[in-house]
Records
---
Amino acid sequence: MSISEILIHLGEDRDQYFNAVAPPVIQSSNFVFPDLTAFRQVFSNELEHHVYSRGNNPTVEILRRKLAALEGTEDCLVFSSGAGAVAAAVIGNVQAGDHIVCQQAPYSWTSSLLRKFLPRFGVEHTFVDATDVVNIRTALRPNTRVLYLESPNTMTFECQDLSACAALAREHGIVTIIDNSYSSPVFQNPAAFGIDIVVHSGTKYLNGHSDVVVGVLCAEKEMVKKIFESELMTLGGILGPHDAALVIRGLRTLSLRLQRSDASAQFLIGKLEKHPKVERIWYPFHHSFPQVELAKKQMRGCGGLFSVQFRTASPEQMEQFVHRLKRFLMAVSWGGHESLMMPAIGFYGIPGKPAPALPWTFCRFYIGLEEPDWLWGDLEQALEVL
Ligand SMILES: *Cc1c(COP(=O)(O)O)cnc(C)c1O
């Protein structure tokens, strides 16, 4: 199936709703059973039938079908946030006494789940430099149940060899989970490399308009059913039909948006790498990236997220540079229509917080849908102060 067929048509049974082109928002908490036969039938499978919207809802189901097809898995669940999807994937596969191996620099709240939350329930973890699969093998214990990956991660874009990780985990009966938010399903499909569960912060590229917080979990039917019956139904972190409809709308342009962000990021990187005040560029497909070959083997593109280390002598100059940027908004997140920057220096000097691992000369940029020339104009004038 082509990607546009998935984004524009799959899951939309238009004859079920007056042949409307855009699907309706089925804003209903519960669904009627015409008779006892139907009652018994729908209760036998709440994941696929319509009983109650904490389980399944027709608008949400359209979104689930599209996302499963995009990742090439049998099914998908959606959550009220990416953090909710990450937590469901991990918690659904461990119990007290188990151990998790995780790549060393995951998303901050994923790290928090492992460091602070799960130890309260007797689940241990080891963070490893997973750029080399040997380090993962060394960290495995008899009670290791989950290997958690994020490739690339979203500040320095470290990658893991997905085929090698999947093979190692399979050999030991370990479930593999990957956070695929950076690449989106347009540029990387981890299930094709043998990864068991693919999660996304759909808040980023999938919705793409900076107006919904949403999480995605894609896997084979058996795994999805297990997590549906436990973490989704019990903890209840569901996506409502209104938000689902917004994400369906966002998906219409997913591949167009990614092509645009990717091309603009490459244009800007081409300008930046020639600038004397740029010390280093972090982007998986950049020739200087340490894992560029692996990245190109696993990914079809990179998208709009990259980082730059600037050459400047003083933190004051770095602060001036940040304040002179007007067309890049200073904000967390990424993947929407608007270009953003997140300077590491902003994390320095926060009362009660230790200095971060990243140098203060480091800044992450996200390139949105604006004209790349217009964005370069902003960077060029701000670079004058460095
Ligand atoms: C934003 C993000 C998350 C968390 O997703 P939310 O939708 O904010 O809960 C998880 N992983 C990565 C890589 C992210 O960028």
---
Amino acid sequence: MTVNLRSKMFLEFEKKEILEQAKGYAFDYLNSTRERSPFPSAEAIINLKNFEEPFPKSTGDSKNILEHLNRYGADATVASTGGRYFGFVNGGVLPVSIAARWLADVWDQNSALYVMSPLASKLEEVCESWLKELFGLPDRFVAGFLSGSSMAILCGIAAGRYRIFKNLGWDINTQGFYGAPEIRIVAGRQAHGAVAKAIALLGFGIDRIEWVDTDSQGRILLSELPDLDENTILILQAGHVSFGSFDDFESICVKARSAKSWVHIDGAFGLWAGASAKLKHLTKGFDGGNSFSLDAHKTLNTPYDNGIVLCDDSEALAQAMQTSGSYLVHSENRDGMTYTPEMSRRSRGIELWAAMKYLGRDGIDELVYGLHQRAVQMSEELKSFDFEIVNEVVFNQILVICDSDKVTNKIIKNIQSSGECWAGGAIWDGKAVIRISICSWATTEEDISRSARAFVAARSKALSA
Ligand SMILES: *Cc1c(COP(=O)(O)O)cnc(C)c1O
């Protein structure tokens, strides 16, 4: 690197302007999301062509670069941090968590090993212990901090795969699948797509999954559960992406425990219900499972990407994620990579710690229960406007159905282009439905009423067209 370029970069920090500029844009953005259209305008999307330019040959000007990014970027964002975005299961951001992340980004800590960042190691340790306390899990549980539930599901099932094979006298890490004894995979028919992905990545093959039929809300039917045994990995769900429903952990985990099966629970957004006194009944008995996956970036409202795997068999998880290399200095202290597939990782524990320290147990309860209250409000208001709700609104998801697929799809289109709120679609029982997910702390009662009115307007428009 030329001395010139290096000096130019040192100067960026010394002038103290570069982050100030970003900070100005950031506050403008954050304070505009309450009123901002949840989805970018057609014009903002067209303006994205301003990013299509030849790859620069020479160095640029940081001020102009940030200016360009903000000018054409901010308006083309999906304002999921505002109060009227109900797509997928996305979650907002807690102010303290985004601020802690900024600071952490500046520190640029690698949380692979203790020696790479004692701070990152300590905060992972603290978060692990607070999470266990929050969910009432025994001390033997360990946590891995990774990008999201897709990875966390993979890790939980990989730990189960390691343990079951080990019990059969087979080391899957060294011996692989050829000639291995058979392991069964049992999952509910309504399992999230990330489950099938993990099964495929782990080499079991999706066609080998023994799918269990589910009820009208996507919950595993107890009567359909096959006999379980010690060679079985059973995958359950806390929070179905559309229905928001929970499997009956209490009954199923007791069976699985006595059969010595491994139970993984995909609780990406739903497991957090266990942190609310009034919703805890939904996750009753979940602690009979062996591994859990959940997302702080969903219900807890940390920024992306922030997933967690919790596992009651630290050896199985560590062995499944095994890594070695002569230069790796494992220590007495927590080495984050022990429980994750990645080595180099940003320090997600920092923003997770900030979120948990800020909210505390009471605040998390309030946040989680508040999402449910807003979901109930939305379903009540929609019903009062003669919309049909097809699911039991046990948590934060609402499914709306209209007279015909044609009308439903038109309403979805109208809502998405309304600038008032944003909701997606799904298929339920072969019919088109509208999916509403309440995931952000920023959603107010007024946001819900305003959005319900937007549904009415979208329906009138659909029927008159
Ligand atoms: C979101 C979600 C996933 C996938 O999680 P990512 O964090 O997006 O990887 C898996 N299962 C359920 C139930 C989810 O809601």
---
Amino acid sequence: MSMSLTKDTTSSAPIQVRGACPHDCPDSCALLTTVENGVATRVQGNPGHPHTDGVLCTKVARYTERSYHAERLLVPLRRSGPKGSGQFVPVSWDQALADIAGRLQAIAARAPEAILPYSYAGTMGLVQGESMDRRFFHRLGASQLERTICASAGAEALAQTLGDKVGMKLEFFAQARLILIWGSNPIGSHLHFWRYAQQAKRNGARLVCIDPRKTETADKCHEHLALRPGTDAALALALMHELIRNDWLDHDYIARHTLGWQALRERALQWTPERAADVCGLPVAQIRQLARDYGSTRPAAIRLNYGMQRVRGAGNAVRAVVCLPALTGAWRDPAGGVLLSSAGQFPVRRAVLQRPDLMPARRPRSINMSTIGDDLLRPTSASFGPQIEAVIVYNSNPVAVAPESGKVVQGFAREDLFTVVLEHFQTDTADYADYLLPATTQLEHWDIHLSYGHTDILLNRPAIAPLGQARSNARIFRDLAAQMGFAEPAFADQDEQLCRQAFGDAVDYARLQEQGFATLELPDAPFAAGGFPTPSGKCEFFSARLAAQGLDGLPDYLPNHELQGSSARHPLAMISPPARHFLNSTFVNVRSLRAIEIEPLLEIHPDDAQARGIASGSLVRVFNDRGSYHCRASVSHRARPGVVNGLGIWWRKLGLNGTNVNQVTGQALTDLGRAATFYDCLVQVAVA
Ligand SMILES: Nc1nc2c(c(=O)[nH]1)N[C@H]1C(S)=C(S)[C@@H](COP(=O)(O)OP(=O)(O)OC[C@H]3O[C@@H](n4cnc5c(=O)[nH]c(N)nc54)[C@H](O)[C@@H]3O)O[C@H]1N2
Ligand SMILES: Nc1nc2c(c(=O)[nH]1)N[C@H]1C(S)=C(S)[C@@H](COP(=O)(O)OP(=O)(O)OC[C@H]3O[C@@H](n4cnc5c(=O)[nH]c(N)nc54)[C@H](O)[C@@H]3O)O[C@H]1N2
Ligand SMILES: [Mo]
């Protein structure tokens, strides 16, 4: 097979172009795209990249189907019907850019903070996700966006405990003897981690899944603890209790490399397995057994993920869990410790890419993306500042993914709101645009990527020319900057230059070009001898920085905002983890993948279903005071009693009644990191 790296995409012999998967997933796969006569005919995993190992998930294997989709946006569009009607007419790029720049200039002359960028991780690329766009909004003096919709509770918890987003190296999970898969469904959500876990299992490791839902992953583990949503901190504290009572501790590690041991010890001793069993809804024996396994197996690894981070006590729960390896000294072994996110290990030059120095001297206010529903509806006030008058959305689909969609829709439907959306498709959010701009996909643009699950940098070369008149996000913001008269040299950098700037000399760019990825040189057992990137250099059980903010310096169990038993009308707890064949709301419009998911599903336990006269296949209404949505019931032991699983995240207009699961989720925030609390949600369910 020819492995030409030529840029010539028009030659007739098939070529293969190295790239990177852009999607929001810890695996950050290396891609090989086959191009024939300028057309991408196949996207595969790069067999030369150890973590990808030539394997892709079902979704990204369909990347050509998505890129060449008949409904790809190919020309700039201007709204021609009422707000939200989704009616548009084509306009030229020149016209669109001039109109948009004119509107933004007029608003910025009065109140630049009335302009809000809204983006998340539609692409994880540093160039198309956080470079020219950030420069543009910094220079404009627009409101800052607090990007809290996914990972900020855990990020803050890691920062306060381990010092940064650091942890075990992915590949060493294969050598662990015990793996706790905690708040994570890797078979559905990050398959390449699961491949290492399977290797460990074949070598005799014990796998334990901690998840309210009986997932595909739980099916394949030796043990499944189906705890109540939002009770992980109670479980972790009870594990500590047992480690202490049975002296399954590494006293030397604790003495040398931790801070706040006596205080944590006292806190944990209040958490008997009986007390935790009551809170978590688990058998006491199961908690004791897990503690024994964790206390007596070496090496023991924890793959912690985002499941527990979408409830009120998210940050405390992550803090409690990431204290565990320091108690047992699990960090001493490369195959011991914990991994939540590896993203803090990359020497990415964010200030160079994003240029915060372009911001006005008085730093603009921040708007939390997880409360966009409320914030779009707020009038000007002394505490809030100016009403939001313009939103520029890219790499995100807030109408579908943000909590309490009823309010998000109401906000985007405001006649006086000026909305620009950069997209591949006419999503639920795009329906509300005044200007809808066609963006390139990963096959069509340059980018450079880090990963939050492994420690390799990946380079993405364009494999084909942009389809239609699509432009890369970076180019669109460059063009807008020119139109606005921003003359700083930072607005002249081209996309590939931005790729080079991202890591500077910290990465061998020639090597990246040649093999598509480069592995960071990091120690195998990063904290075998302490050296945590905290102020004390230790694992901080007690965080003086949290205490200084008036918060609890120790991790504790904080009950959910919406605690079961607190509402007779809405007695069921709902979690809304991903449907396996979608990626958040991306791929919902890819026919072959939607054909597998068929309809929005609600998994409900047989007892809860029977009490409501619900059978498998019944059309049901899920509701609370925020709203309701329709879905198809699946009566199943995948749901634990009292908890329903509303699999996400459908496009509203492709669902059953023009809404989706976020119609019922709320805008309350987490204890740390001001993150969304999607899984802290009480509902009632009835036959529709
Ligand atoms: N196929 C697919 N893959 C994805 C995504 C997708 O939408 N689809 N999304 C991507 C994104 S953006 C992210 S952030 C990652 C997320 O990566 P993961 O966090 O591994 O992904 P999830 O599948 O959401 O797994 C979370 C699990 O937590 C469980 N859970 C819910 N509440 C609780 C709780 O209170 N405690 C515990 N212990 N568990 C709980 C859920 O049932 C679910 O099985 O996945 C990425 N990968
Ligand atoms: N109920 C509930 N809600 C949730 C979650 C949940 O578990 N339950 N999960 C939450 C999580 S973990 C996350 S991360 C968020 C995700 O929320 P979002 O980041 O909004 O993710 P997506 O829904 O995938 O939307 C990304 C959009 O970006 C577009 N896009 C991709 N690449 C490009 C590009 O290069 N240029 C431009 N202009 N556009 C591009 C895609 O077409 C897609 O429409 O959702 C959150 N919402
Ligand atoms: Mo996410």
